[in-house]
Design a protein that fits this description.
five-stranded mixed β-sheet, 47% helix
């Protein structure tokens, strides 16, 4: 199994991908980028979380990816997917799952907790397997939550503490990637309400606020 894993995660040659995967990648690349100046209600956001063997995108391995859409401020149970990287036994099957994830995310803004962690793993795998430079528009809840919910906390803190602060704690911090994603989606729904009230009423403003909050906290 170890040898197989090394094969799955070594650099692939995009030129030698099967024709169906190449066609799917071209279809994804041709999709229009989501307009970021629309009201939140009209924007499809994709909330995403991962499971991994550790915290380092450079040295650890991705085990799974969960994604769920938030559209019209509603979580749609049928608009979700899970990619089981850990159980992959065939490189082309993994590549097809990765393309399916790209098509699911489309060109929507992505929402997660700690972009450097989640985005780092995804960028590595997409680059190694498909030759894709994965650079979506990210909304980072780790920095936005203390910026918009200073009444609950003014500092970046572990996700479980935010879950407790919002009264969503169900007594266990051990959750799957999909359970974490749905929990993040519920928190994101609350954040959209607060953001609207503060005039952060489009995806573009939300992304800018996320970046500004990250920059200020990292440099002060």
């Amino acid at each position: 199994m170890l040898g197989l894993k090394k094969f799955l995660f070594k650099n692939a040659s995009p030129a030698h991908l099967p024709d169906d995967i190449k066609a799917a990648l071209e279809s994804w690349r041709s999709q229009p980028v989501t307009a970021l100046d629309e009201a939140h209600f009209h924007t499809r956001y994709v909330v995403i979380d991962i499971a991994s063997t550790g915290m380092s995108p450079e040295t650890d391995e991705l085990l799974g990816v969960a994604a769920a859409a938030v559209r019209q401020s509603t979580i749609l149970p049928d608009d979700a997917m899970f990619l089981d990287v850990e159980s992959a036994t065939d490189a082309q099957a993994l590549d097809r799952q990765l393309v399916a994830l790209l098509q699911f995310a489309a060109r929507s803004p992505l929402v997660t907790y700690h972009v450097s962690y989640v985005g780092g793993f995804l960028q590595r795998l997409f680059k190694e397997r498909l030759g894709v430079d994965f650079q979506p528009q990210w909304v980072d809840l780790a920095w936005l939550l203390p910026a918009l919910f200073a009444d609950k906390s003014t500092s970046v803190m572990p996700l479980d503490q935010w879950i407790a602060a919002f009264g969503l704690d169900e007594g266990s911090s051990r959750r799957s990637a999909m359970e974490n994603t749905l929990m993040l989606a519920r928190i994101f729904q609350m954040l959209l309400v607060r953001a609207n009230g503060k005039g952060v009423d489009t995806a573009a403003k939300l992304i800018d606020e996320s970046r500004a909050s990250s920059f200020l906290r990292r440099t002060h």
